[in-house]
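Just curious: can you write a single protein's sequence together with how it folds?
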Amino acid sequence: EDKRAKQPPAFDDVKEQLRNVVLREKYFELAKKLRAEAKVDIADADLKKALEPAPAAADEKPAEEPAKAQ
């Protein structure tokens, strides 16, 4: 027994939407794969240093709160 209140849309009515969904999913899969395989070589030493993550110190204390205005 079908429990739907109304009929699903005809395939021809949603074909373009389905096509777009599938294309979008394939695009994101390909982009994710390409990013994972990409190797970026930064030749500029200053830029390379700026892009490196700062080392996290274990004994680093949290930033102090600014003084409250009166």
In short: The mean pLDDT is 84. The chain has two helices and no strands. Residues 11-51 form one domain. The radius of gyration is 26 Å.
